[in-house]
């Protein structure tokens, strides 16, 4: 998992054609175990059970990863042109050498710096991954089916039983729900079976010297060397995603520095192979991000007919009692345990699908990975692990996922009608959802911001 700018990166997860969830909610100032890949390549891997890591390069006939494509990056950034990448790659040894003074200021020994960097070569295939523009072909209900599967739940229950003493100790020390930790472990790496196999040092060194996010990755690279210099982890343990996230719950090096703890007192903070350290470190991350002990992440709710979906906005949090006054009820007909708690309404599939009132702990999960679909998957998986039931209301499975070309067209048509003020890019974020809501109001439709093929047809004038 991963961070933005000064801290937490934007690793992007699951989402549907609702597209309100396709773009992560960036939270400046947060930092944790999140992949630092800016591109949407992490979207696919954080959702699929077979690809919980940022996508690894496919292998060729000889078993080797394919080379860099040699093409300009899709972002159009000047540092992502083919010529700029080649020039930076040629300067890679000098770039590594020039970072030694910064490493020394971090108390990394010269011997270790030379040992860990002597044989480094840039992995230019990462440039294609950094700037890829994947096609989104799954709806949120399909993602949830994959992530919250019977097999993954069974494995999660095994993990909870096997490491019960470690979970017990962690709950006492940090007050963080064991089921949330187990859910993160399961979704991030399928319980340590899919952690990625790229060298964290090589990946972060490549990105520190080449491409459009060098300043960010320089910190990650030097932090990775600090971890090795201190002896918390061995070089062979630091393997993970192309963006540098490693371990069963996917810590970036800077997040490791902030949150990793030595739970068993052996002198090392081993979040890769030591379950006590792994569980406690993940809990420490959540606690420092504001986890509320004993509280839920949110509730599935039934929204009444005629409801004003303009209220479905994370900026419009209200007490649960006020939502109840507006006619929202829990899907299981149970009362809200703490009516004074504030929540915001999330309707990831518009008026035709389930809705959810999201509490503080949901926002904390989003700090761990800033995408609402990811946080929804974690919360629901945790509930199922503790014995809860599937969601009560059905998803609109008849809806077709819009292709990237269709999403781009949708934005262009909204712009032509004066609703969309951004630059069309095929990615449905806040500006597009607001524009779509404006259009829906103009045609007398519920303003749920859900991008369907039907609303695209209405925009086309058909």
Write the layout of secondary structure elements.
Blueprint: H1 41-45, H2 82-90, H3 92-98, H4 100-105, H5 110-117, H6 125-130, H7 140-147, H8 150-162, H9 164-174, H10 178-189, E1 198-199, H11 200-209, H12 214-230, E2 239-240, H13 253-259, H14 275-288, E3 298-302, E4 318-319, H15 320-325, E5 329-330, E6 342-346, E7 355-358, H16 360-368, H17 372-385, H18 404-416, H19 430-442, H20 453-459
Antiparallel strand pairs: 1-2, 3-5, 3-7, 4-6, 6-7
Helix pairs in contact: 8-10, 9-14, 10-17, 11-12, 12-13, 13-14, 16-17
What does this entry look like structurally?
Mean pLDDT is 86; it is low at 1-63. This protein starts with 40 loop residues before the first helix and ends with a helix. It is globular. It is mainly α and 462 residues long. Helix 9 (164-174) packs parallel to helix 14 (275-288). A 5-stranded antiparallel beta sheet has the order 4-6-7-3-5. A two-stranded antiparallel sheet has the order 1-2. It has 20 helices and 7 strands. The longest helix is centred in the middle third of the chain and has 17 residues, at 214-230.
Helix content percent band? 40-55%
Global Rg:
22 Å
The coarse overall form would be globular
> Which runs of at least 5 residues are low in confidence (pLDDT < 50)?
1-63
Give the averaged pLDDT, no decimals: 86
Oligomeric status of the shown chains?
single chain
Number of helices: 20
Quick one: biggest sheet?
Answer: 5 strands, antiparallel
């Amino acid at each position: 998992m991963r961070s933005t700018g000064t801290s937490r990166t934007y690793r992007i997860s699951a989402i549907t054609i609702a597209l309100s969830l396709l773009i992560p909610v960036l939270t400046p100032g947060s930092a944790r175990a999140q992949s630092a890949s800016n591109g949407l390549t992490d979207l696919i891997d954080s959702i699929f059970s077979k690809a919980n890591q940022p996508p690894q390069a496919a292998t060729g006939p000889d078993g080797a990863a394919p080379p860099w494509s040699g093409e300009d990056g899709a972002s159009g950034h000047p540092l992502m042109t083919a010529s700029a990448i080649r020039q930076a790659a040629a300067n890679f040894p000098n770039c590594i050498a020039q970072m030694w003074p910064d490493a020394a200021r971090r108390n990394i020994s010269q011997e270790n710096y030379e040992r860990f960097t002597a044989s480094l070569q840039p992995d230019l295939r990462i440039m294609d991954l950094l700037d890829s523009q994947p096609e989104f072909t799954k709806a949120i209900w399909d993602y949830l089916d994959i992530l919250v599967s019977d097999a993954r739940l069974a494995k999660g229950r095994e993990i909870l039983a096997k490491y019960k003493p470690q979970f017990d100790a962690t709950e006492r020390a940090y007050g963080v729900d064991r089921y949330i930790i187990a859910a993160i472990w399961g979704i991030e790496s399928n319980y340590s079976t899919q952690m990625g196999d790229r060298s964290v040092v090589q990946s972060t060194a490549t990105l520190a010297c080449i491409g459009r996010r060098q300043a960010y990755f320089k910190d990650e690279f030097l932090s990775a060397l600090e971890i090795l210099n201190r002896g918390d982890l061995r070089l062979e343990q630091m393997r993970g995603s192309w963006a540098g996230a490693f371990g069963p719950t996917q810590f970036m090096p800077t997040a490791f520095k902030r949150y990793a703890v030595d739970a068993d007192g052996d002198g090392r903070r081993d979040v890769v192979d030591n379950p006590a350290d792994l569980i406690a470190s993940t809990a420490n991350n959540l606690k420092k991000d504001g986890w509320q002990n004993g509280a839920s992440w949110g509730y599935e709710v039934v929204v009444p007919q005629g409801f004003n979906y303009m209220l479905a906005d994370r900026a419009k949090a209200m007490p649960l009692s006020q939502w109840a006054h507006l006619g929202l009820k829990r899907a299981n007909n149970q009362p809200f345990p703490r009516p004074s708690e504030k929540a915001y309404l999330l309707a990831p599939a518009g008026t035709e699908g389930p809705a959810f009132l999201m509490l503080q702990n949901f926002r904390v999960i989003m700090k761990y990975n800033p995408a609402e679909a990811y946080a929804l998957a974690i919360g629901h998986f945790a509930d199922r692990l503790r014995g809860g039931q599937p969601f009560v209301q059905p998803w609109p499975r008849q809806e077709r996922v819009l292709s990237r070309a269709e999403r781009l067209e949708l934005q262009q048509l909204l712009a032509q009608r004066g609703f969309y003020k951004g630059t069309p890019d095929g990615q449905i974020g806040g500006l597009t959802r607001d524009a779509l809501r404006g259009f829906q109001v103009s045609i007398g439709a519920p303003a749920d911001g859900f991008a369907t093929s039907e609303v695209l047809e209405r925009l086309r004038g058909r």
